[in-house]
Design goal:
With 456 residues, the protein is α+β, with helices and mostly antiparallel strands. It folds into four domains: 5-91, Uridine Diphospho-n-acetylenolpyruvylglucosamine Reductase, domain 2; 98-216, Uridine Diphospho-n-acetylenolpyruvylglucosamine Reductase, domain 3, CATH 3.30.465; 220-327, Alpha-Beta Plaits, CATH 3.30.70.2190; 334-429, 2-Layer Sandwich (Alpha-Beta Plaits). Helices cover 34% and strands 21% of the residues. It is built from 16 helices and 18 strands. It has helices at residues 5-15, 24-31, 51-64, 116-124, 142-147, 155-158, 193-197, 231-244, 256-266, 291-300, 313-324, 326-333, 348-362, 392-403, 422-425, 428-441; strands at residues 20-21, 45-46, 68-71, 88-91, 98-102, 107-111, 128-129, 165-171, 177-180, 206-213, 215-216, 220-228, 248-255, 278-286, 306-310, 337-342, 367-373, 378-384. A seven-stranded antiparallel beta sheet has the order 15-12-14-13-17-18-16, sandwiched between helices. The longest helix has 15 residues, at 348-362. The chain is globular and about 70 Å long. The two termini are 21 Å apart. Bound molecules: (2R)-2-hydroxypentanedioic acid and zinc ion (ZN).
């Protein structure tokens, strides 16, 4: 159904004509997600510049019953931030202020459209750092990262986005603004709306700003890349380092198939003279140089076949590239099916052992590439060589995850991509409670319809 002209005119009156994008060329970048697997079309992209404008836009959409998909940096991987059925796209990128940086308490306020890299730069200039980091830092926005409870490479030390949030400002689907940005470390006064909205994937409210907690800057960094026999070996090393060093900040795992792909696409030389089945990347960060301590722990850790250590920035970045460039290298090869799963740590080796066979049994042409955040029990199972709609391997992998007591989404969220499988790991009572919350906050169902909760 086309949008009434009056709606477009009134939207333009709120945000300015130049910020209601209807030209197909201008809309295109908002209509396809990062993976290129999820795409739709929108009558218009609306780009408000303030909370007041977001509220006025939502109030209007509510009045017209016009559905809305909120969008940040469009780096999501589960199709939850692009239109599916001609919804309006509400882009939050112009809400990009970093304000009220309290250098004494280590807190800052970020508008929803601030990129992670911009936030990092602003707080580092004041001697602080932000606890979450991830490869898409130049595009991913803070609002989107809170809305999807993004994880990243430092969850082991600082937790995910949810753990960084001290307060939130958001607009409910009818245009009402909820704002709780107290700058208080302790606030036990009723339901915690900030934590409810974190991870709600734009289905309950549109986040416009967040009050975030900062972490100390750790100027000394040491990165080790290790070759090991398998994931069980990698987990033994991680456990030894975690027990010995509180400075461990990242523990990332990948396998030979991913390393070879990255080397080919990124033009990198392999890290070691010989190929090995499994690789573990560790990063320690502290106020003083921990590289000798890390080397000492690793010297006594069992099963390390080869290793490289770097403390200077170029050396560290060289080692990180083998891990961080997985996503782009996989995408350069084709459009993958992406499964982002967590397992209890003690079931991770069994999962890794079985998952490739599970996929091969269904489609011998499928190419699984596994990597992820070892100490979080989080593996990213990317599968190349599948038709976009051949979900049989996805189904089998997610059933294996459920059998082993895991979750079908560790950090990317449910979006539309994982909705058919939510029942595998969330009970009927869980899903009904979620639906009740959705109905209470968005009775007209205009906010990101079809994401997380199936339409009634
Ligand atoms: C990462 O850990 C991201 O690099 C992306 O979560 C994972 O591409 C993926 O599947
Ligand atoms: Zn990840």
């Amino acid at each position: 159904m086309p949008l009434p002209d009056t709606l477009l005119q009134r939207l333009a009156a709120i945000v300015g004509e130049e910020h209601v994008l209807t030209d197909p060329d201008l809309r295109a970048g908002y209509e396809t997600d990062w993976t290129r697997r999820y795409r739709g079309s929108t009558p218009a992209v609306v780009r408000p510049a303030s909370t007041r404008e977001v509220a006025a836009v939502l109030q209007l959409c509510h009045e017209f019953g016009a559905p809305v998909v909120p969008q940040g940096g469009n780096t999501g991987l589960v199709g939850g931030g692009v239109p599916r059925n001609r919804e309006l796209v509400l882009s939050l990128r112009r809400l990009d202020g970093v304000t009220d940086l309290d250098a004494a308490s280590g807190e800052v306020t970020a508008g929803a459209g601030v990129t992670l890299a911009a936030l990092q730069e602003a707080v580092r200039a004041q001697g602080w750092n932000f606890g979450v980091d991830l490869a898409s830092r130049d595009s991913a926005t803070i609002g989107g990262m809170v809305a999807t409870n993004a994880g990243g490479i430092r969850v082991l030390r600082y937790g995910g986005m949810r753990q960084q949030v001290l307060g939130i400002e958001a607009v409910l689907p009818d245009g009402a603004v909820v704002s709780r940005m107290p700058g208080l470390l302790k606030d036990n006064s009723g339901y915690d709306l900030a934590q409810l909205l974190a991870g709600s994937e734009g289905t309950l409210a549109v986040i416009t700003a967040v009050r975030l907690k900062l972490v100390p800057q750790q100027p000394h960094r040491a990165v080790a890349l290790l070759a090991v026999e398998n994931i069980a070996g990698a987990l033994r090393v991680v456990s030894a380092v975690r027990r010995a060093l509180t400075s461990l900040e990242a523990a990332e795992v990948f396998f030979l198939e991913g390393l070879e792909l990255v080397c080919r696409h990124a033009g990198l030389a392999p890290p070691f003279p010989a190929a090995h089945p499994c690789y573990l990347l560790l990063e320690c960060a502290a106020q003083s140089d921990e590289s000798a301590a890390l080397a000492g722990v690793l010297a006594n850790a069992p099963g390390i076949r080869d290793s490289a250590l770097a403390t200077d920035r170029p050396g560290r970045e060289r080692l990180w590239a083998y891990r961080e460039r997985h996503t782009e290298s996989i995408s350069a090869e084709g459009i993958p099916h992406k499964l982002d799963v967590t397992l209890p740590l003690n079931r991770l080796p069994e999962f890794e052992r079985r998952v490739r066979g599970t996929i091969a049994a269904i489609n011998a042409g499928a190419r699984p590439i596994l990597f992820g955040h070892a100490s979080d029990g989080n593996l990213h199972v990317n599968i190349l060589g599948l038709a976009p709609d051949d979900d049989r391997p996805d189904d089998a992998v997610l059933r294996l995850v459920a059998e082993l007591g895991g979750s079908i989404s560790a950090e990317h969220g449910i979006g539309i991509a994982k909705m058919p499988w939510l029942h595998l790991t969330r009970s009927t009572a869980d899903r009904e409670a979620m639906r009740a919350i959705k109905l209470a906050l968005d009775p007209a169902g205009i906010l990101n319809p079809g994401v997380v909760i199936p339409p009634a």
